[in-house]
Each structure stands twice: as structure tokens, then as C-alpha cells.
């Protein structure tokens, strides 16, 4: 999978974030400050505006770096630096490779997760986007070890990310604004885990679509 | 939602344009990206003070740019931290060669974005220090949370550090005094109603007609507990107890007592709060030697108030009294 998949993934990400903008705002209003959907939508809208300027011979890492710098400079809040760092580290992990195999996809997801941890210092169970990213990385790693192909690896990651987002519902938050609520955060899904699950699902969906075109 | 706005997307940009139109003698406003700079910046040899954070807390921070206080303010979108770009631009604009102090309220987004901007400024050869303000006693266990929030005490840090910088203190000294103010300041806030973020269109939380929220933040995030509405004096007693035992403040202390409105509470109520708070402090042998009452760190149209107590000494008192000339605080000049 190459630059076509990555740019498709980015376009699909912008689409799903826009479609889920109100849902993310609502989740964030319950346990945060109600800006998550708005901020991400603003960021991905800015990414879309820049995507067409990507030079024709670009590789996946170039597109990921474009997303990173654009999110860092447009999103604000905590999610801007956190997701921006995720894409930046993912770009670094795939380097100048024009085509990504299963191992490269796992390396991309792992670097993204590690980037979020580096900046935000959250652990699994803190009720943050890490609760989506970490199970996704684990599932992708396991799928690679089982000899699955790129699409299957991403689908395993997306399934695990969605389950991870759901797993934040009974948790007390230990990072971010929801941490101020104590037990009152219980019963609410973390908006950052939800948006990250959407982004990882977008990666799987576009990979599957690209594969069916090739087949 | 009923608001005096045009398009929710333009709220912050149009507000800073208003600041420019009203206070063009004090500040210069930049629009792409948005930041507000003291008219005579950069001042050669003076430490630059930059603060910022989500919009919706006006007059914080743009109203505090000027002589004796901030050199620049960086407003993000409503309740959303600014990105590193405008923070970096503001930092460069106020660097007079003596370094820049970032005054950052302790929220995850603010801290991360200011941290990134400080890294970039350092790479450009500007010496940047950061003081994180975390005066809110409502957050109980900092081990299992993002830590105490920076709330109304931020104004006191900005005023006193700004006075130190204005009289020529170096970056170490300005950082030290800002750190000291934060260490000696405690705040607790309450809300009677929730604010409505313009682009969200609905209140950030819901409170019944007879409920209030104790330990509220300034971004519409709910506090720690919800109780039935009580008379003002009883609420003030509830607010002051955790403040006083936290530092702790003791008999014989001299303090600055600051009653801050959250945007939707009239001054008449703030003075009722002040009256009771002053009574309680007097009963405990604590002398109020400096005061501040008004809407300085707001949360859009939220009804509510916070009480801040700063333990003063001669140095801090003198810096508090020093001249200041900004849109929202002005004396001695």
C-alpha cells in the first residue's frame, strides 16, 4: 500500500470527523469542555486544503508529515499536539518507503501510539485516546505475527480501537480535563478515544477499498 | 442559545478586532495568527511576559496587556488552547533580548501547546521560562488527575510578575516572583449556571434551578460536587474553608482578597460574597490589606464566582501597588 492509500485514508478521516463532529462535541461536553469535534474538524479541514499541494512523487511519510504539522498548527487544545505528534512519529517510522507492507503498517501504528504516550504521558486505563491506540497496536502486532495481510492487520486494529473506546466508559479519568470529575466521569465514553477509533477505522476501510480496486 | 454574536466561527477574531478598536493606544492586534502585543513591544532589555489560553475568559488575557503587566496575550478559540504558532509569534514579538516568561494555566492543552512553542522559540535562540499556574484547590488529588487547574489566581501572577519585569528584574527574578505568587495563592469557584460555547450551541452541563456546582473550573467543565442552593453566606463559608486550610493561611497573615465574577453574576452579588469573605477572614485573624472585586477571569456567561486569597509580604504588596496600565487593570499611571 502506498501514497494512494494514505491520501485516501486522510480524506476519509476528514469525512468521518466531519460526520461525527456533533457526536464528538456531545461526548466532550459530558466530561470535558465540548470542543473536541470542532477542533478536529477544523484541523482536518485545513489538512484537506493542503493535501492537493502534495508533490506528485510524494511517499506515505510525506503525507503523514503534512497531517502532523497541519494538526499541530490548527487544532489547539490537547488533541492538536497529541494527534500531531502521533502522525509525526508515524511519518518517521515509515521514512521514505514508497510501499508499506504489514510490518511497516504495524511500525506506523506503534510509532503513532508511542508519540501520544511521549507527549501526554498517559497509560492504558487513564480514559484517554491511548485506550484506543494501545489495543489497536497490540491487535495489529498479533495479526502480523499470524501472517495476516495489510487489510486484515488494519481491520484487527480498528476492531480493537473501537472496543478500546467502548472500554473507557466505566473508567475514572486520570488525565485531561475529565480527570477533574472523579467518579462522575464513569458512564461516559472518552471523546479522544472515540475520535482515534474513527481515524483507525478510516485507515482499515480505505485499505479494504483500495484492495478491492486492485483485485 | 441567545448570544450577541455574528458567526460562531468568528467570535474570537471579531472580539480581538474590538479590543484593537477600543484599546489601540495600549495594544497592537495581529490576526493571522491571532495574538495581542503591547504597543511599545519589544522593550529592549526587559523580560517579555506572554500568557494565553482559550477565549471566553475576557478580560483574561488580552485585557491585561500593557504597561506593568503582560507584553503579549494569545487567545485560542473559545475554551481551546491556542496552537504553538501564535504563541511562538507572540514570543518573538516581545523578546527584547532579556528572555521571555510564559505564564500558563495548568490545563493539558495549554501546557502542551506552550511547551511546543517554547521548544521552537529556544531553537530560535530566545530564552524562555515557563510558570504553570495551578491555584485551584477544588482538584483534590493531583496524583490521579491532570493536577490543579489555573484559574483566577492567574491575574495576580500576571500583575505582580509584570510589575517585577517593568522595574527591570531579570528572567530568573521574574520567574521566581511569578512562582512565589502562584505558590501563595489559592482559589475556589462555584457556578449557578453553565456557560454555552457558541459553536456547541448548548450549555456545557445542566444544573437544576435549585442546584449549584462547587469547585467549578473556568471552561464549563463541571466541578467536584453538586449541592442545593444555599444563602450566599453559607456558600462563601463552604468556599473559604478549603482555601484557608490548604496553604494554610493563619492568624496574623496579610492577604489580598479577590472575588472574581464568572461573567453572568452581577457586581451586587460579588460584593455580597466579598462582604462575607472579609468577615470570615477577620474572624480568623487574617488581615485583608489589598482587594480586587470584579469580572476578571470569566467563563462566558456563566453565573458564579470564585474567591482567591494571596498571602502577601512586603515584596508582593509593593509589586501589586506598582503602576499598571492595561484595558482591564489600571492604576498609578
Describe this structure in words.
The complex is a heterodimer of chains A (215) and B (333). Chain A is mainly α and 215 residues long. Chain A contains nine helices and no strands. Chain A has helices at 3-19, 21-31, 36-51, 60-74, 79-94, 102-120, 130-145, 150-167, 191-214. In chain A, helix 1 packs parallel to helix 4 (60-74). By secondary structure, chain B is an alpha/beta fold. Chain B folds into two domains: 12-184, Dihydroxyacetone kinase, domain 1 (Rossmann fold, 3-Layer(aba) Sandwich), CATH 3.40.50.10440; 185-311, Hypothetical Protein Tm841, Chain: A,domain 3 (2-Layer Sandwich). Chain B is built from eight helices and 14 strands. Chain B has a six-stranded mixed sheet, sandwiched between helices. In chain B, strand 5 (100-105), helix 3 (108-123) and strand 6 (128-133) form a beta-alpha-beta unit. The interface between A and B is large, with 33 and 38 residues.
Gist?
Chain A is 71% helix and 0% strand.
Which properties best describe this structure?
heterodimer; A: about 220 residues; mainly alpha; Serine Threonine Protein Phosphatase 5, Tetratricopeptide repeat; 9 helices; B: about 325 residues; alpha/beta; Rossmann fold; Hypothetical Protein Tm841, Chain: A,domain 3; 6-stranded mixed sheet; 14 strands; globular
Kindly provide the radius of gyration of chain B, computed on alpha-carbon positions and rounded to a whole number of angstroms.
19 Å
Order of helices and strands of chain B: HEEEEHEHEHHEEEHEHEEHEE
- Global morphology of chain A: globular
Average pLDDT of chain A works out at: 94
Which residues of chain A sit in consecutive blocks of at least 5 with pLDDT less than 50?
none
Largest sheet of chain A: none
Query: How many β-strand runs of chain A?
Result: 0
